[in-house]
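Minutes, project check-in
Item: structure for the 138-residue chain
Input as provided by the requester:
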Amino acid sequence: MQEILISRRLLLAGFASAVAAAPLRARAQGRASVLVLGMDISDGRNYDPARMSDLTPPLTNGNVYDTLVTLHPGDYATIQPMLATEWGLTQDGKAWRFHLRKGVKFWDGGDFTAEDVDFSLSAWSAADQPGAGIDANR
């Protein structure tokens, strides 16, 4: 079973960064069974999750990337599994332990591993990255 440990500070910062605003405009097709939403994403200068700092990249990336856990609309108090199947505090209470879902593949067929999560969190928390500002080692 793959596991990864994440500090409480990094986990809370991740949840805070996941909050995104609703689109300003929506347009729908004429068919009753299809809803197409359109929005202006021209403010996006960087779609790298570790560097984005504009309004729309988080909205766009939410349709491209999966996260360890998620929240469902209407129930923002209950954390739901996504790439993590279960999680909990370590015995010393200083970090969280996540168990990762098996069988997840990247677009190129590569396996999803704990090392991928570590890479993403390390890139996101690097102090020299614009838009990051979280130190995973604290």
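Outcome recorded: The two ends are 27 Å apart (CA to CA).
No further action items on this chain.
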